[in-house]
Automatic annotation (TrEMBL), chain A:
<dbReference type="GO" id="GO:0005968">
    <property type="term" value="C:Rab-protein geranylgeranyltransferase complex"/>
</dbReference>
<dbReference type="GO" id="GO:0005092">
    <property type="term" value="F:GDP-dissociation inhibitor activity"/>
</dbReference>
<dbReference type="InterPro" id="IPR018203">
    <property type="entry name" value="GDP_dissociation_inhibitor"/>
</dbReference>
<comment type="similarity">
    <text>Belongs to the Rab GDI family.</text>
</comment>
<dbReference type="Pfam" id="PF00996">
    <property type="entry name" value="GDI"/>
</dbReference>
<dbReference type="GO" id="GO:0007264">
    <property type="term" value="P:small GTPase-mediated signal transduction"/>
</dbReference>
<dbReference type="InterPro" id="IPR036188">
    <property type="entry name" value="FAD/NAD-bd_sf"/>
</dbReference>
<protein>
    <recommendedName>
        <fullName>Rab proteins geranylgeranyltransferase</fullName>
    </recommendedName>
</protein>
<dbReference type="GO" id="GO:0005634">
    <property type="term" value="C:nucleus"/>
</dbReference>
From TrEMBL, chain B:
<dbReference type="GO" id="GO:0097354">
    <property type="term" value="P:prenylation"/>
</dbReference>
<protein>
    <recommendedName>
        <fullName>Geranylgeranyl transferase type-2 subunit alpha</fullName>
        <ecNumber>2.5.1.60</ecNumber>
    </recommendedName>
</protein>
<keyword id="KW-0677">Repeat</keyword>
<feature type="region of interest" description="Disordered">
    <location>
        <begin position="83"/>
        <end position="131"/>
    </location>
</feature>
<keyword id="KW-0808">Transferase</keyword>
<dbReference type="GO" id="GO:0005968">
    <property type="term" value="C:Rab-protein geranylgeranyltransferase complex"/>
</dbReference>
<feature type="compositionally biased region" description="Low complexity">
    <location>
        <begin position="83"/>
        <end position="116"/>
    </location>
</feature>
<feature type="region of interest" description="Disordered">
    <location>
        <begin position="1"/>
        <end position="20"/>
    </location>
</feature>
<dbReference type="Pfam" id="PF01239">
    <property type="entry name" value="PPTA"/>
</dbReference>
Length: 483, 406
């Protein structure tokens, strides 16, 4: 059998996280020789998905690595009396990346034009809720447009009008720079209050739509407006009542798998459990010399390194908890729009200051993505909750408080926690954790693709992520001739 | 140009030589089909075969109403009668036996009609027990017609002839079938029209049709009872749905249901007053949830509600037992509400319009001339109206003149 060093590689990619997997997909129809390695024994990197056993075996390098302080808890109550208890390991697919994909994102179009969409099943993200510490009710629907605002009896008439004026502005904000550019570095809160006379509780609502992990004071106008606009204009694009989707069976992990599969079908070579230990740029020969952890050394024209974790001032930490709950939490999934599909994901926002703990103040918002069993991530009758907040010394108790408040507010008497996995994730400021897929990832991939493709990419003979159907590969093809 | 969001495709486009030739072929085919149908109908060949020929043509051109009439005739004097002919029926209200209409036809035709009837009877299993004819086959024919219509209606949702024919078929069901069976068909119509209104919630045919279906379902003949509560609820649902606030049809329907609704609820004066207040709250909330370029529908409904207070003699009223003083108090309150609404909506012409209208209405109700303050206000509002809606300057001129006269 040939050893890897026998081949003159065109591209060596280290890491099968989402971005690098998309690059493999983009290169899958070229005649470039691609070597794609990952030091993990699994695909997906920082966006991987695990069964329960795989979580048990997950020992990320806690001292310097991306993932730290991993803490696992399982419900050890006398489960024989309970009907709904933790099921077998493979009944669960817990993802490290529960990102939602807005319908306006370019990713979906590219998954279609690259023909891999058939291997993915997308589900609706509907039902956005905001937690109101004072209550009742503890959970309120986030208004997504004029109809929701009209229906909401908790908003008085003047506020309704101000909110409508803001909505009308934000969906077309690019064409009205005179109304916001002067304030682009201001906090969104101040902007909403001074320019649109929105009271604090409406500011919370608008801020919640940005999915900002920062405190309200640090969420700035320039960053927030496009996100709010994207949220509002995405609704209804693929059907009534929802504006975002996630892929079934593990979100980003599933896309990474499918993309790598496409890379392999295209001739790429995949080696798991093998990382890059050293990379030397040999300028004279226009080649890289890559040393692999299996002892081999390979040469390649282009090298795409692992998107490692940064340290120091370039980084920030995010805390996450994945939890399994013994209930369908059905009250969260009730649709309010006529004709809308059943959503598989509901989003619950805990604005800063709404959770009250003895030992801590909640300065940053907490987001909980609730995944029903329709996502394929857990057995029927249970849900997976993905809670995220910025790291602080007390982020774990804050996440715990969010989870228990959420469960209490759904008034599902049979709901209890069966399993929680807590961890902190270090990340580079330039590509921060985003609960919604950031299209800038696609821009990065395209740039890297152009570099690897050289002249072919530049002269238009190959188009980025635009492929023909492969003949005979798709088992659904009845008729090879009709394309 | 699109009408309330439904795009209208261009009907003429540039065509190549080949396309023109293909089109000529299609035109010829169509003309031949048309001739064939005309001939057969003239010969009174009221058969299944001819029915299918008409189907072919009508799918292409549902506006050809003569063919729809031919189809009606075909059913009444042909297929419907044959089905009932083989039963021991006595009640045939509108259909006549083939012999009457085909009295001038040749024997050949009657025999073909009879042979077709034989074909039909051989497939029947139900014994001729009902005195309303072979419900089995007539029902099949009627259902077949409804199914035939459906895809054409999706394609041509505004074609009058389709709606007319559909209603005619359902009337046939009323006349020829058991009331319970007919009722079932009408119930399905309600669901159907519900779906069509979700697709295009402002299709006026759809709303008109809904009214007719509901009237049928409420009728005594079909053992019905009043549906005013559920219909009122339906308008609430539509108004709160997508773009519901600007759905004139929904608001209009709502306004028409209110008098019957309140009567049926046996509402006393207090309940009626509460109802009025609630409706006003609803519409005012709708107006606040609007922004430039303001929707007119909400204002029409506001106008309707106000008229029940100011101009109720001979018109719909919600609070029939209010005294003159009650009305004056209410209108004065509304003027304050409108003034409030103006603050922040100085670009909304409807507010100024309403302020002037109801200030003058108030004067009329109190049978007095406008006070100097009121006159000044109206004049300044009128000035704003001129600025905001200069296309209607003629109207504002008139208004100015009538103001000055007082």
């Amino acid at each position: 059998m040939e050893s890897l060093s026998d081949t003159k590689w065109d591209v060596v990619i280290s890491g099968t996280g989402l971005q690098h997997s998309l690059l493999a997909l983009a290169l899958s129809r070229s005649d470039k020789k691609i070597l794609h390695v990952d030091h993990n024994e699994y695909y997906g990197g920082a966006e991987a998905a695990f069964s329960l056993q795989e979580v048990d075996e997950w020992h990320p390098d806690s001292s310097t690595g991306t993932f730290q302080n991993v803490t696992l808890w399982k419900d050890d109550a006398d489960t024989s009396s309970q009907s709904n208890k933790l099921s077998f390991s493979r009944a669960y697919t817990l993802t490290l990346s529960p990102q939602i994909i807005y319908t306006k994102s370019k990713l979906l179009g590219q998954l279609v034009s690259s023909k891999v969409y058939r291997q993915l099943e997308f589900q609706a993200v509907g039902n956005w809720w905001i937690y109101n510490g004072e209550g009742p009710p503890l959970l309120k629907r986030l208004p997504n447009g004029r109809e929701d605002i009209f229906r909401d009896q908790g908003i008085d008439n003047r506020a309704k009008r101000s909110l409508m004026k803001f909505l009308k502005f934000v969906v077309d904000f690019e064409n009205q720079p005179e109304l916001w550019e002067a304030d682009s570095e201001c906090s969104l809160q101040d902007f909403l209050s001074s320019r649109f006379q929105l009271p604090p509780h409406l500011q919370s609502i608008i801020t919640a739509l940005t999915l900002s992990l920062d405190t309200p004071g640090r969420t700035i106008v320039k960053w927030a407006l496009p996100r709010i606009s994207r949220h509002l204009t995405s609704i209804g694009v693929f059907g009534p009542g929802f504006g975002a989707v996630i892929p079934k069976w593990g979100g980003g992990a599933e896309i990474a798998q499918v993309a790598c599969r496409a890379g392999a079908v295209g001739g790429g070579v995949y080696v798991l459990g093998t990382g890059v230990t050293n990379a030397v740029d040999d300028r004279d020969k226009e080649r890289w010399r890559i040393e692999l952890s299996n002892g081999e050394t390979v040469g390649t024209k282009h090298y795409i390194p692992h998107s490692g974790s940064a340290n120091g001032s370039n980084s920030r930490m995010v805390s996450k908890t994945i939890a399994v709950v013994s209930s369908t939490l059905s009250s969260l999934f009730v649709n309010s729009t006529e004709g809308s599909p059943l959503a598989a994901v509901s989003v619950v926002v805990f604005p800063s200051g709404t959770l009250h703990l003895e030992e801590a103040t909640q300065d940053c918002p907490v987001y909980v993505m609730v995944h029903s069993s329709e996502t394929g991530e857990c057995p029927a009758g249970q849900c997976v909750l993905y809670a995220t907040t910025l790291y602080s010394a007390t982020s774990k108790p804050i996440l715990d408080a969010a989870l228990s408040s959420l469960i209490k507010s759904t008034e599902c008497s049979d709901a209890r926690l069966l399993y929680t996995l807590y961890y902190d994730q270090q990340e580079d400021i330039s590509s921060p954790c985003d609960l919604a897929f950031d299209d800038r990832i696609l821009e990065n991939v395209e740039e890297q693709w152009k570099e690897a493709m050289g002249s072919e990419g530049a002269d238009g003979s190959s188009l980025f992520m635009q492929f023909e159907e492969r003949r005979g590969i798709n088992p659904d093809d009845d008729n090879d001739d009709d394309y | 140009m699109a009408s309330h969001g439904i795009p209208r495709p261009a009907t003429t486009a540039h065509r190549t030589e080949q396309q023109l030739q293909e089109e000529q072929l299609q035109i010829q085919e169509y003309r031949d089909l048309e001739d064939l149908i005309r001939t057969k109908i003239a010969e009174r060949q009221y058969t299944l075969e001819v029915l299918q020929l008409t189907s072919k043509l009508l799918k292409k051109n549902p506006e050809y109403y003569t063919i729809w009439n031919d189809r009606r005739r075909l059913l009444i004097y042909g297929l419907f009668s044959e089905s009932s002919d083989s039963s021991s029926s006595s009640k045939e209200p509108s259909s006549s036996s083939p012999t009457v209409t085909t009295s001038t036809s040749s024997e050949g035709v009657s025999s073909s009609a009879v042979s077709t009837a034989e074909n039909l009877t051989t497939t029947l299993h139900d014994p001729p027990s009902r005195n309303r004819g072979k419900s089995g086959t007539i029902l099949d024919l009627i259902k077949g017609e409804l199914e035939f219509l459906f895809p054409i209606m999706i394609k041509f949702p505004k074609c009058y002839w389709l709606w007319n024919y559909r209603l005619w078929i359902l009337q046939q069901a009323n006349e020829r079938l058991d009331p319970d069976i007919a009722r079932d068909l009408w119930n399905r119509e309600l669901i159907l029209v519900g779906k069509m209104l979700v697709k295009d919630s402002r299709n006026f045919h759809g709303w008109g049709y809904r009214r007719m279906v509901v009237t049928q379902l409420e009728s005594q003949e079909l053992h019905g009872k009043s549906m005013v509560e559920s219909e009122f609820e339906y308008t609430t649902k539509v108004i709160h749905g997508l773009n519901g606030l600007s759905n004139f049809s929904a608001w209009h329907r709502r306004s028409k249901l209110i008098p019957t609704l309140l009567d049926q609820r046996g509402a006393d004066d207090a309940t009626r007053q509460q109802f009025l207040e609630d409706e006003f709250d609803l519409i005012i909330s709708a107006m606040y949830t609007d922004s430039y370029p303001y929707a007119q529908s909400a204002w029409f409904y506001y106008q309707f509600l106000m008229t029940t207070v100011t101009d109720y003699v001979g018109h719909a009223t919600i609070t029939p037992n209010w005294t003159q003083e009650d009305r004056v108090v209410f209108v004065t309150r509304q003027l304050a509400v409108l003034g409030d609404m103006l603050d922040g909506a100085e670009d909304c012409k409807w507010v100024y319009d309403a302020l002037i209208e109801y200030t003058l209405a108030l004067c009329q109700m109190e049978e007095r001339e406008p006070l100097p303050d009121e006159k000044t206000d109206c004049q300044s509002w009128l000035m704003e109206l001129r600025k905001l809606d200069h296309l209607r300057s003629g109207r504002w001129d008139d208004l100015e003149i009538s103001l000055e006269k007082r």
